[in-house]
Amino acid sequence: MESGRKLLLPIFCLLAMLVVACGGGNSATTAPAQGSHTKAPDNKQVYIDAAPGAGNSDFNTLDPAKITDIYSNMPASRIFTGLVALDDKLNVQPQMAKSWDRASDGLSYTFHLKPNLKFSDGTPMTAHDVAYSIDRTLQPAMKSPTGPYYLQYIKDADKLNSGKIKTIIGDSLVVPDDNTITIKLNKPVAFFLDALSYTTGLVVEKSLLQKYGEYTGKWIDHLTEGGASGPFKVKSYDHTKQMVIVPNENYYGAKPQLKEIIMPFYKEKDTTRKDYLIDRLDNASIPLVNLQQDKSRPDYHQTPILAINYYAMNYNQKPFDNIKIRQAFALAINKDLIVQNIWKGSYIATNHIVPQGQPGYNPDLTGPAGVKGTAGDPAQAKQLLEQGLKEDGYNSVKDLPPITLTYSSGGVQAARDEAAALQQMWQQVLGISVKTDDIDFNKLINDETSGANNPLQFYSGPAWIADYPDPQDWTTLQFDAGVAQNGMNFGQNKGPDAAAQQALQKRLEQADVMQDPTARMAEYNKIEQELVNEVAWIPVEQQIYTVLRKPCVQNVIDNASQNTPPEDWGKIYISTDTPCVNATVS
């Protein structure tokens, strides 16, 4: 699991720093109904989508077992589907499954598949393919960076992944007939279906993979022959230029109205905006320098996404084992000024660990020590610092050990500016001089995910993007004992509050398996407030997804996951509205 998180995090950082990087999203409002626009002819139903390939010379991978980034996730979720998927409101909906039954003890799910499912080449798609796809992801030879995490709650998944057993088919994955599969769990986690919606739950065609190498990834270059289980199939894939996908005539759901989606690669992300303005693209990324002027454009869209930029203090290093000193540092920050002056309004200032738009979001949450708002509280910060210094035997801030904030800017000036702004706030409010250290990103990730061995005193997270829309992903996964993300050593320290932190960790584990959804969300809300009071993180900003999109692209709905659900493609089409790309089906 730890290795998987390390591979995921670089993408999170990239998104955090570039802010407006991806371009496949849409405004937070529902698009007009189809009847209010004239649909263009079929040969004009071409969508040139820059979102997946912006800033990339190629997709990292299209193998569902290997995907760790949103850029690869976008095309993969158009080509493949699984038992379930998330809709635009991030609720779990049936896909290949028409229904499912959950055992009374929560330790198994039995899925009933839709009838007559087929892959794009006409090969029947059955429950055996579902079992094969999940089992393959967990095979040691697959070396999946994500499967051991997203599928960890399947019974004996860890044994398979470590090579102790050869398969879980017939054990944890039971297929009594072609249209039924039962998945057994090792604990009754309430968020299993959410986790199953990730790419590790997508279904691939066994015969195609075995023909070209099921663990090598070479089969991806043969997707033109078949293998698609989703609304689209691959027409062509030039690793140096673009991918073209077309409707999968064997898809079980509503057939796409678009006749082609072209996904070109752009090594320079900012180039997409230039090509958009001369009608070569249907959507485009917005560089930070252009954001303010583009906000007034009628083709500008934005929506908050499930991504939080945060900082963390290591409980195992002085002076951050003292809660009042931690609170002082948090309350000395005016997050509103950082968002306005540095990020030009492209972020939302926040005190939240669980972001807006996420099930379980708590609108009543306050900052540390009950402070409301995101502008900080200099007076209370000073008072808390004075109390903390006295408790730990410091006569003044001059007696504190040297403090260094470690981060990785990735060469982004705004990230450097934020670090400098924090330095200035801590100096002005607390009288504390904090050094900054802008280091290599991979070193930052390796250090901060090393738990008790984390050498960092104070560091940038640098961001977390939801893996699936459940508060567990923001709480237990970050702060429970032994998890890779707990580099701040919450509950893993000898400080005066360690026992209380460990009690909270137990409550997290109990919340994970609570069966009453209302009570479960209420418990996560309480725990999140305690984590904020503890300053387990210093959340600073929630990211916003911004994009320019042609008015002729109809019925795309923005959502916090940045991905279009499979069923939505049956509603999306190109209208005669202008301006529009003058593209024709090839």
Automatic annotation (TrEMBL):
Cross-referenced InterPro entries: Peptide/Ni-bd (IPR030678), SBP_5 (IPR039424), SBP_5_dom (IPR000914)
Residues in the signal sequence: 1-21
Q: Cite a GO CC annotation.
A: ATP-binding cassette (ABC) transporter complex
Q: Name one GO molecular function term.
A: peptide transmembrane transporter activity
Q: Which family does it belong to?
A: Belongs to the bacterial solute-binding protein 5 family.
User: PANTHER family in the record, alphabetically?
Assistant: PERIPLASMIC BINDING COMPONENT OF ABC TRANSPORTER, PERIPLASMIC OLIGOPEPTIDE-BINDING PROTEIN-RELATED
Nucleotidyltransferase: is it a keyword of this entry?
no
Its subcellular locations are:
Cell envelope
What protein am I looking at? Peptide ABC transporter substrate-binding protein
Q: What is the lineage of its organism?
A: Bacteria, Bacillati, Chloroflexota, Ktedonobacteria, Ktedonobacterales
Q: Which Gene3D superfamilies match?
A: Dipeptide-binding Protein, Domain 1, Dipeptide-binding Protein, Domain 3, Periplasmic binding protein-like II
The record ties this protein, via SUPFAM superfamilies, to: Periplasmic binding protein-like II
Q: Which domain of life is it from?
A: Bacteria
Q: Does the keyword Signal apply?
A: yes
Q: Give the GO terms filed under biological process for this record.
A: peptide transport
Q: Give the record's keywords alphabetically.
A: Signal, Transport
Q: Which Pfam families match?
A: SBP_bac_5 (PF00496)
Q: The Solute-binding protein family domain covers which part of the protein?
A: 91-480
